[in-house]
């Protein structure tokens, strides 16, 4: 019997496709992150032993080593990183770096910058670094060169921003735009909001407002400040389905229509930043007014993408470009510097030292710049949504601590609130102090006092006040234990020349990479956030129950609370 040659060809094609799939499957696994329980490593055990035998007081460390500052600090062209006031000696640092190596951090970094699918649970790359790369070698993911596409969106953002800033983009009555309202939440809010506030000395002249909370009070207070004819709303949402953002977006649209705008005017006053073109169109936003980004940009790392449009409008495209350049500078440092001199790696490993060996539960970030007051809020999402995990990459419950509670506030306000606990409380709070040599105002008396406090605090935390010093000063012996400050409280200091778009880019990138390194050591998936999903789903169910005044299946507490609400809401 004669066989059909086409059939043979099909069979062969199927066979080759199968082989290709098997090959692709294994290639994918080849690039996946290592899955090592760090506590099983001899390097971990060595740190445990080292911790048990330690007897370090920072007072002695500095007495014993006249060059401790030089030995435990790194100077870059525009900032200084001092980690000498940490509870470490040279051996500790060596052991910590050994642990990083044993956890195959080097291959993790390669996979990260190589655009590999390291967000395995969501099957995506983690590739925000590509958004700030001027080197096309670091913009390839899934075999695709993204450089041109990234630049195209960036150029579109810049052209649009220039038009708005220079008053060429007009509102529906022909007036220039004066106010921008960014509507987004989480990563679609915190980064641009923090950076707009941090860089307000670089303002383009446009007023930028941020709405995130579903609580109407927030958007209401913004409506009171703006004129619909001169306002541009940016709906920033990767998914374009987030309840808070979409509710606020529809409220803004209705407000706009009630204030005199027409349906046709919406296209001119509403811009979208999203990966979901169909949803954007349904909302009534023109296709050309959608700014695109990619699923490999995680929400909490998205300020470098089109999500940063509100920021670009607020500070101008040139300053935004500087922000990208600062971040890229740290990307290069992180990628290329030996771990022993690598700032994000050192910060991360010190964090591991305190979290896993000293059992510190929190970490404070204390910027001595009022404009950086929102920096700890921003970092809370970046860090806690990433490393607040208790299941490892093998799907096993971890038997060690992961991400700490991160918090903080601008100095000196924090000094008059919670510093007492850091100085004399029973909890160890490792802290990062962030300061700037120059300020943007001319009131040097203020800045000198601010900086004097900045230096005084890390000194007081490290060295405290010994009992004999208190005895020399006080005649009341009862007060001696109360006035004694143990010291030995660890701090890092990041001292930059100036708070500029470039240095802010550096600062944010340092913390992004620190978070990455810690996730690598803890063997967790840092780039998903399943923990926040359950609450969202339950809220939707409960919303229906509230609307229908019919409560479904819940525990007695939740039922009792909803019941109380329904009974009293109309009274
Ligand atoms: O908080 C959960 C989260 O998914 C964040 O990761 C994200 O930044 C935020 O919600 C907003 O999501 P979206 O940009 O899709 O509206």
From TrEMBL:
It is found in: Cytoplasm. Pathway: Carbohydrate biosynthesis; gluconeogenesis; Carbohydrate degradation; glycolysis; D-glyceraldehyde 3-phosphate and glycerone phosphate from D-glucose: step 2/4. It catalyses: alpha-D-glucose 6-phosphate = beta-D-fructose 6-phosphate. InterPro entries: G6P_Isomerase, G6P_Isomerase_C, Phosphoglucose_isomerase_CS, SIS_dom_sf, SIS_PGI_1, SIS_PGI_2. GO terms for biological process: gluconeogenesis; glucose 6-phosphate metabolic process; glycolytic process. One of its GO terms (cellular component) is cytosol. Its EC number is 5.3.1.9. It is an enzyme of class 5 (isomerase). PANTHER family: GLUCOSE-6-PHOSPHATE ISOMERASE. Catalyzes the reversible isomerization of glucose-6-phosphate to fructose-6-phosphate. This is Glucose-6-phosphate isomerase. The lineage of its organism: Bacteria, Pseudomonadati, Bacteroidota, Flavobacteriia, Flavobacteriales.
